[in-house]
Amino acid sequence: MTPFAVLTSIVAPLPHDNVDTDTIIPSREMKSTGKYGLAEGLFAPWRYVDVATRKENPDFILNQPEYRAAQILASGANFGCGSSREHAVWALAEYGIRCVIAESFAPIFYNNCIRNGLAPVVLPKTVISTLAGGTATIDLAAQTVNGHRFEIDPEAKMMMLEGLDAIDLTLKHRDAIAVWQAKDRAVRPWIYL
Amino acid sequence: MTDLGGGYALIAIDRIFLHERTGAAALKSMADAGRKVSDPARVFAVMDHIVDTRPGRGDGTLMPGGAAFITETRAACHAAGITLFDVNDPEQGITHVISPELGIVLPGCTLIAPDSHTCTQGAFGALAWGIGSSEAEHAMATGTLRVAKPRTMRVTYSGKLRHGVTAKDMVLRLLADHGAGGGAGHVVEFAGDAVAALDMEARMTLCNMATEFAAFTGLIKPDAVTLAYLEGRRYAPDPLPGWSDLITDEDAAFDREILVEADSIEPMVSWGTSPEHSIALSSALPDNADAKVLNYIGLHAGQKIDGTSIDVAFIGSCTNSRLSDLRRAADIVRGKHVANGVLALVVPGSSSVKRAAEAEGLDQVFTDAGFQWRESGCSLCFYAGGESFPPGSRVISSTNRNFEGRQGPGIRTHIASPEVVAASAIAGRITAP
After folding, report:
1. Among B296, B406, B407, which would you mutate to test the A interface (most chain A Cβ atoms within 10 Å of its Cβ)?
2. First to last CA, chain B
3. Do A153 and B7 touch (CB under 8 A)?
4. Where are the domains of chain A?
5. Which H or E element spans position B3?
6. Is B361 near chain A, with CB under 8 Å?
7. B 93-122 residues inside an 8 A Cβ radius of A
8. What is the pLDDT of residues B1-48, one digit of tens each?
9. Which of A18, A109, B92, B157 has its CA 20 to 30 A from that of B367?
10. Which domains, and CATH codes, for chain B?
11. What is the pLDDT of residues A170-191, one digit of tens each?
12. What CATH fold (topology level) applies to the domain A6-164?
């Protein structure tokens, strides 16, 4: 995973609450069994007036010239709600989005962001409205966006800053896991099939 | 297992369930990284998401490229030694229908699946929640997940439900009152007399939509009803442990408490494009409804929802496709016929549900009334690019999501209980049973 340190980009406003993962990438755009080839389907229902021909909707924010290369999205509450599809994060990342600023995130989407090095930044609506449409600098180590402090838990921050692989990290506890499981087998034998 | 610091712990994952939509991706990615499934005996997979539901099905699916998801998942499961309930396996069905049917989910266990509706299985007093593909890989490779301790919430439904009000109405009312973000990251315990009075299938319906509440998951304490359901299931222990300690302490403090008076709940239906856009069937769209939402859904602010004409009625999904759901819907359509011009379908939640319904003659009740009777699967709860409803259809649906485009481009979805779907199919318009 690519480490995340400091990012400066124009901030594309997507000022809606409850932006769901079916909108970020509809099921019909998940055409391959892998993690790639998804950027074209990103926000397909909003981005195209005709999905089949990929005729763009000029009103959609990421189709407007100044926001085409945006790496930061600013949205409302409960961003990424709905389906657990990690394809939503893969599609955002492949398109070039490296940070979403929102009032809150749906829990599964939030974790998917951390696992893929896409920064989920939680800020109040009043701050987001001052950032949307302008240029922002995210400093993950300092936990600031244009000087506004945001909270992120230490584990997520470390994973992203160092680009760590969670599985490698956990496998360092391999012995402790085996010891725990051996004890657990005696307590909850029905768990072990 | 271990405190990781910063509020995170390494916790044991007891059960993992995969499906063909994301299972192959996770298993392939693991294989590419040279990682093995640590305990394949505790990992299960099923074909449910894009599998065809028309009679005589095989690996073929109307979704372009869909067969690859099925064949690759099958190959990856076989290579990893994972138990797979394949397309025409007698136990095939929707993950959150078959896992309980087979006794795979158990009280006090942790169960994860790369599927947001995994919270359904919290109905058994399990900690069951949806995760992404990367987390699924982590759980398969290590038998654990790194989890930040979630905040806690209790939603207490006091008193008794009115006649004709269901678990679906209970959860839609919660979403309407507290919003789709209302559960933000909490583990939600559903409690109270009205919850204790629900059978297991209704409890699953209630917990199913905890994810629509942005909760980490939902759960219900196991009791005699839970044990009676699990008795004799294939993967359940024999004899069953009592699990009597899996109850909330009387003096336990929750981060948040919500109280709902059960007898104040009416049959509900969604009017917009988020499950929080739900209202009592007897009421009207809010006067301040969002213009963008109204434009998509094709209704007006302040308009009564009852009487809105529909094109399609769909009974199915992990929310409402179990035998009791089908029985209640069948009672409403028995001896009647679907309104002219309405396309109506019933998709049983599992092959076992389908067989049990057929043994009772429910298939005949539905087909006599003009419903299609399908093989089990997730079906048209979402549009994957294959089978679709007619363009622009207004659908009354026993599913969980009414998002823009969820059931197809431009499709307008109204979610409700199977009873409301059945009654609306007969009337040709949204109506109470």
Report:
1. B406
2. 50
3. yes
4. 6-164
5. strand B2-5
6. no
7. 106, 108-109, 114-116
8. 999 988 899 999 999 999 999 888 899 999 999 999 999 999 999 999
9. B92
10. 2-147 (3.30.499.10), 152-264 (3.40.1060.10), 268-427 (3.30.499.10)
11. 999 999 999 999 999 999 999 9
12. Aconitase; domain 4 (3.20.19)
